[in-house]
Each structure stands twice: as structure tokens, then as C-alpha cells.
Amino acid sequence: ETTGLTPEHGGRIIEIACIEMIDGVLTGRQLHHILNPEHPIPELVSEITGFYDAMVFDEPRFSDIAPQIVDFVGGDRLVIHNAAFDMEFLREEWLLVDVVWPHLSDPNLVIDTLPYFEMRHPGERRSLNALCARYGIDPADHENPNNCLADAKQLGINISQACDAFLRDLVRQEKERRWSQDHADFIASYN
């Protein structure tokens, strides 16, 4: 969740969540934070997200949790629904904390599921809620439909239920990428 539609107009991240999937299976490992955006949340954004200034006042800033993101994600790929939007905000947040994060410069480390679902369902809605309805998945958080952690879990379930071939391909690519890196490291050790 963010405080606006673009970081260029001062939008900041107010909620971030990551879940771990290995070979298409949710492991239960997760990272979730509500964040203090360091500026007032616009009233319209509060109405949409359910986040108000008083709720985030004592929460950590992005800079406080950035190392946790690095530790959680490591060198693994990020799978994001509508990655262009999220990566724009993540780029800005990482610039503000002056930390180099390889996921910002290496497009191979970020997979956007939106184009995949656009291809599978042309002309249809492809929001996470629409995909959950299409695949018969319980959105999981009926009290707060804008919950970022629930969204991450929904994406994982949508992927595992709707895209087995897609996941097998991702797993194969990840194994090939790791093998290539291990091979390169092995060769470099002899030079």
C-alpha cells in the first residue's frame, strides 16, 4: 500500500509484505510491516487503504526495515502482480535510504505476473480479487480487503493454482541461474 499513485508526487510505501514460495508451495515464511511514510496520509488514501496517520505514527520507517527486506529476499526473484507500480515505489524508497539493491537494476530478478494473467484472460479484469474470484480462491482477509500480506498470499495461491506450468518454468530458470552462478564462481576460483 502507498500514500499516492506515484512517488514523484510524494507517495510513499505504508505497507509492505513478502511471502516465500519454494517450487510453487507457500512455506509460511513471511515479512510484513506497516510503515510510517514520514508525511501525512491524504484523506482519500486513508479512506481507500484504511491507514490513518495515528495508526502509522509509531511504526518503523522504510529505512528501518530495509535490511530485513535484503535478508528476506536475498538473491531470489521477486514475483509481483503489476510490478511496474511496486518497483517504482521501491526504487524511490531505496534511493532515499541510499542502499544499492540488485533487484532495482536487474530485470531478471523481478517477475511481473500481470502480463501473464493478461495473456491468459484477455479483456477481463485481472486484479488479485478478480483472479481469486475466477479461480475460486478465498481472499482470506474479509475484514481488510487492502491488506498487503493477504494480497501477497493471494498472488501465491493464484500462481500455484492457475499457473503450474508457469511455476515449473520459473523454478527451472532459477535452478539454471543458480547453476550458472555456481559454475562461474567455480571457474573464477581457478583464475
What's a concise summary of this model?
With 191 residues, this protein is an alpha+beta fold.
Elements, N to C (H/E): EEHHHEHEHHHH
Major sheet details: 2 strands, antiparallel
Low-confidence stretches: none
The coarse silhouette is globular
SS element count, helices: 8
How far is the first residue's CA from the last residue's CA? 47 Å
Radius of gyration: 18 Å
Strand-pairing-aware structural class: alpha+beta
Fraction of helical residues: 40-55%
Strand order of the largest sheet: 1-2
Provide the residue-averaged pLDDT. Answer: 87
**What's the total number of strands?**
4
Strand content: 5-15%
Please name the defining characteristics of this protein.
4 strands; two-stranded antiparallel ribbon; 13% strand; globular; two-stranded parallel ribbon; single chain; alpha+beta; 191 residues; 8 helices
Secondary-structure topology with pairs:
Layout (H helix, E strand, L loop, with lengths): L14 E8 L2 E10 L8 H7 L3 H4 L5 H12 L4 E3 L2 H15 L12 E3 H8 L7 H8 L12 H15 L1 H26 L2
Parallel strand pairs: 3-4
Antiparallel strand pairs: 1-2
Mind explaining what this structure looks like?
The model has no long low-confidence stretch (mean pLDDT 87). The radius of gyration is 18 Å and the shape is globular. Helix 6 (128-135) crosses helix 7 (148-162). The strands form two sheets. Strands 1-2 form a two-stranded antiparallel sheet. It has a two-stranded parallel sheet with strand order 3-4. The chain is an alpha+beta fold and 191 residues long. Helix 4 links the parallel strand 3 (78-80) and strand 4. Helices cover 50% and strands 13% of the residues.
